[in-house]
Design brief:
By secondary structure, this protein is of the alpha+beta class. Helix content is 67%, strand content 13%. Helix 2 crosses helix 4. The radius of gyration is 22 Å and the shape is elongated.
Length: 109
């Protein structure tokens, strides 16, 4: 999970994932053209970080490298963190609901 957080922690890598998600199967060249202020090598290094985190999957087709977004690592983080906190906050919201209902009942004659 550390690799996923590291990968998602950079604005350029998040933009790369957004582009690849919007254009499944796009090439490296398709992605690099959106980064005029960054060199192609720098974009490729960002892609390597994304691949190491298993967020980006590449497939070679001839000389072309097709890119695909892999949502599984993000889903794993979501499942791990939100499930526990969702239960906690749902329980707290239910407690608050009961407390408010009791105060309303006491206030009504």
């Amino acid at each position: 999970m550390d690799a996923v957080f590291l990968a998602l922690g950079h604005q350029v890598r998040r933009k790369i994932l957004d582009l690849v998600q919007a254009m499944p199967g796009c090439s490296v060249g398709d992605v690099t053209k959106y980064f005029e202020d960054i060199s192609r090598i720098a974009v490729l290094r960002h892609m390597d970080v994304l691949e190491n985190a298993n967020l980006l999957i590449s497939r070679k087709v001839g000389r072309r490298r097709e890119l695909f977004f892999n949502a599984v690592p993000v889903q794993m983080i979501y499942d791990r963190w939100t499930t526990e906190y969702s239960r906690f906050w749902a329980s707290r919201a239910l407690d608050l609901k009961y407390m408010i209902e009791q105060k309303i009942q006491k206030a009504d004659p």
